[in-house]
Amino acid sequence: MAGDAVSDEGLPLGAEIDADGLWSQVLNRAQGAGLRPGLFLDRDGVVVEEVHYLHRPADVRLIDGAAGVITKANVRGFPVILVTNQAGIAHGRYGWGEFAEVQEKIIDDLATEGAFINAVFACPHHGDGRPPYDKPDHSWRKPNPGMLLATAERLPVDLGKSWIVGDRAQDLAAGKGAGLAGGVHVLTGHGGGDGEREEALRLEGDGFKALTAADITQAASLLPLFKEGEG
C-alpha cells in the first residue's frame, strides 16, 4: 500500500531505510584516494523532468544533458549524489516500493548513457505528512543540510569544495548549511517559479557562491569542479 515501507529484503543494492524512515543508498565508492569534491544534485527538475509526485517508472524522463554532466563528474572522479525530498511518501501518494522502482529506472537510464551516481539520499518527512513521516523541519529535509552531512559520513566527500545544483532555493540553502562552496539554481523543474531564482541568489555570502543557469548543462559550465586545474 502507498506509504508502506518495503522490507529489507526488497530494497535494491546498497539501500537502507533507518528507524527514522530515511533512505540512504551507497551504490559505489568514489574513485581515487582521499577526500574529493562532490556534485550534489536535486533529482526532480534537475536530473529528471518534473512530474508531480513522480512514482511510476514509465514517467521517468532524463533531462537533456543530465547524463553527460554526470558522466563528466564520473570521469574526473567526483562523487555524484542525489539528495531528494519525498513529500509524496509523507502524504501517502506512494510508498518506498514505488520510490525504489523509480530510482532503479533512473539508474538504468543513466547507465545506458554511460553515467552512474554514487549515492542517493531521500527524506520523506513533511510537517503535514502522515505518521510516521510527519516530523516538521526534519534535519534531512531541505532546506536543512542533513542529507548532505550524512553523505560526508558515508563517502569521502570534501564538503567545503563541493557544489549543489537544484531547481529550488531550498536546494542551495541546504548546500550553504552544509558548508558547500556554492550552488547553481536552474530554471528547469520548479526553477522558474515566482521568486525562486531571486531567493536562491540571495543566499550568496559567508563563503557560499550562488549562481544561476538555464539547466544542468549550463550549470556544469559554471562549476569550478569542471574547470581545468580546479576542483
Short overview:
The chain has 231 residues and is α/β, with parallel strands linked by helices. 27% of the residues lie in helices and 15% in strands.
Account of the protein in words:
The protein is of the alpha/beta class and 231 residues long. It has a single domain, classed as Rossmann fold (3-Layer(aba) Sandwich). The chain has seven helices and eight strands. The protein has helices at residues 66-76, 87-90, 96-112, 146-154, 169-177, 196-201, 216-222, and strands spanning 15-17, 23-26, 39-41, 80-85, 119-123, 163-166, 182-186, 209-213. An eight-stranded mixed sheet has the order 1-2-5-4-3-6-7-8, with helices on both faces. The longest helix has 17 residues, at 96-112. The chain is globular. Residues 1-5 have low confidence and may be disordered.
Overview features:
single chain; eight-stranded mixed beta sheet; Rossmann fold; 231 residues; alpha/beta
Based on the coordinates given, report the CATH architecture.
Answer: 3-Layer(aba) Sandwich
The CATH superfamily is: HAD superfamily/HAD-like
- Number of domain modules: 1
Oligomer: single chain
Q: How large is the share of residues in beta strands? A: 15-25%
How do the helices and strands follow one another from N- to C-terminus? EEEHEHHEHEHEHEH
Shape: globular
CATH topology (level 3) name: Rossmann fold
* Overall mean pLDDT: 93
Number of helices: 7
Helix proportion range: 25-40%
Strand order of the largest sheet: 1-2-5-4-3-6-7-8
Return the CATH class: Alpha Beta
The biggest beta sheet, please? 8 strands, mixed
Q: Low-confidence runs (pLDDT<50, min 5 residues)? A: 1-5
DSSP summary, beta strand count = 8
SS-derived structural category = alpha/beta
Rg, Cα atoms, Å: 16 Å
Q: How far apart lie the N and C ends? A: 45 Å
